[in-house]
Amino acid sequence: MKLHELKQAYNEVARNMRNLHDNIGDTTWTDEQRSQWSEMKQKLDGFDAQIKREEELRDADQRFVEEHEEEHREGQEREERGGESIDEQRAQAFDAFLRQGMQEISAEQRQVLREMRAQGTSPDEKGGYTVPTEMLNMIYESMKDYGGLASVAQILNTENGQPIEWPTSDGTAEEGELLGENTAATEGDVAFGMENLGAKKLSSKVIRVSNELLNDSGINIQAFLAGRIGQRLGRGEARYLVQGTGAGTPEQPSGLETSVTATTTAASSSEFTWQEVNALIHSIDPAYRRAANFRLGLNDNTLKMMTEMEDLQGRPLWLPAVSGAAPATILNVPYFIDQGIADIGVNNKFMYGGDFNQFVIRRVRYMVLKRLVERYAEFDQTGFLAFHRFDCVLQDAAAIKALQGAAT
């Protein structure tokens, strides 16, 4: 089957599963209905696996086409016009810097790189140069694959890493008052906290590339490095956004695990019930539950347990997504998967619920890439090292709560 046919088949099975769930309603499920559901879920998992394989193959084919199409297009464009745009000049100069270093490129290209570095907030980074916008976008695109929290949180992009004093508050206990005629209003001060939204520095670690690969003009070295940098920074950022302690040397961000203090505790440290998940959902103020970004957050192991749960009538609690119609849900609540969230365990916060737009992720767009030549000369390799700066803050403590395992 072709990819679009696989997706249509997946949606058809998902739609049938939802119809079965809705048609049975509140009545108790029979063994035949459970068996029918299990068969459809097995088919759904099979289509899902096929779709992922086909998409991986298609992505690989697309990358191959784009790499070679760019060379062909560049040749045609040079013939059609007399000059090149500043973005093209920057891209070519940066590509030359990656392959050859500063000493071997032309004076014009060195000037373009110096102008790029001068535009950054840290122009004195010796041996490093600002990553061009095109490559930066490729890095951010690669980072999207890691950590579901960033897909639902509020993203704040800044051009520099200067600290920001960020107000925090819990207003769920505050309300207006009814006044009689000619009656003065009373005062109700807002209790603000203040968090420092800084710019923690994360490195990609050194990426070693053979000089043979750098000298091969057929290799899109920017795409190669962007993919590796995005993979490493994406995994690192995702882990600290969830598990950051807000302490240590160097100081870690205050991640979701540390920032969320309001919890509902399960009766066990090794398993949980759907009633406890429901208790988590309803422990959150309805105003947050109506928010567009209200979600449950959990890891894939916990999701597997949820997909196998049924309510007292034998109805599955998990419903599959139907493309363009409905998202996948748990107890009718959309969810996201983040592998940084803990498994169920003693005192572990293993599931979160709330309005994740209240969790703010700050990213600094300015990114430096260093080229390390002499360090790996004996291996005939060149090292590359990138730095990414970010931080996070939960601006409303009442907006997100957690379900945690029992203390014993």
UniProtKB/TrEMBL annotation:
Superkingdom of source: Bacteria
Annotated localization: Virion
Domain Phage capsid-like C-terminal stretches: 127-404
Name this polypeptide is given: Phage capsid protein
One Pfam assignment: Phage_capsid
Main location (coarse class): virion
Region feature (Disordered): 64-87
Source species taxonomy: Bacteria, Pseudomonadati, Pseudomonadota, Gammaproteobacteria, Pseudomonadales
